[in-house]
Amino acid sequence: MFVVSKLFWMIFQPLAFAFLTMLAALVCLAFSWSAAAAVFAALAAITLGIACFTTAGAMLMAGLENRFPRPELEAPPALAIVLGGGISTGISARRGTYVFSSAGDRYIEALRLARLYPAMKILVTGGDNSLSGNIHGEAAPAARFFADHGIAAERLIYEPSARNTAENASLTAALLASQGLKDAGCIVITSAYHMPRSMALFGRQRMKVMPWPADYRTDGNIRFGFSFDKPMINAMMLSTALREWAGLLLLRRSASGP
């Protein structure tokens, strides 16, 4: 399932889809199928126009980010579960340091809470999510980051094998159960747009966790319109939002059964 989902998204993310439909249009032209070529070319143009020059991605992203606000903590959390994705693992491994990705706020927020609540432990879950299997996980660079910022090693727990969010939840649940911590007061730290799917998957593991979103990408109040000044950011936003919404739809469908 992991490989299928990776390959599916490599093909159907907006820019890749536009590229492939344009190739299909060229093939159709080569065989003089002008009507089919026009359909594929129009589909590519519409996809690129929506992805690059509208606020569709930001609007969909805001809908995800607004689902789970940060709760009021009645007591200090016993454990913060940090979902992988905040560190560029390949670069970090080759450079021997920690290099944050665009989701690096996950680690910054974990560090802030670790200093605020000195008894809180931190669990980092995330392994190699590449198809090649040649990229290291986040355990080593995360250890360097927390050590450099004064967090004692005994406060840290690592789950180094998860390749996606479903495995983040299942492997973390198994690890915490083995250590008698599954029912501890846990918060989940991940990007705000990623929180709805994360909470659904941790819920399937019968874990009672509180959402602690970080890494906001929007101000939460986006309307649909044109946006010509940042086409690549718009396209990236739409791609990320569509992936999350697709994941949520698949979860809902699997929960309802055949």
Automatic annotation (TrEMBL):
Organism: Martelella mediterranea DSM 17316
Taxonomic lineage from the root: Bacteria, Pseudomonadati, Pseudomonadota, Alphaproteobacteria, Hyphomicrobiales
Keywords: Membrane, Transmembrane, Transmembrane helix
One of the GO biological process terms: Gram-negative-bacterium-type cell wall biogenesis
Transmembrane segments annotated in the record for this chain: 7-33, 39-62
A Pfam family of this chain: DUF218
Residue ranges annotated for the DUF218 domain, each copy included: 80-247
UniProt-listed InterPro entries: Cell_Envelope_Assoc, DUF218, Rossmann-like_a/b/a_fold
Name of the protein described by the UniProt record: DUF218 domain-containing protein
Gene3D superfamilies found in the cross-reference section: HUPs
Keyword Transmembrane assigned: yes
Assigned GO CC terms: plasma membrane
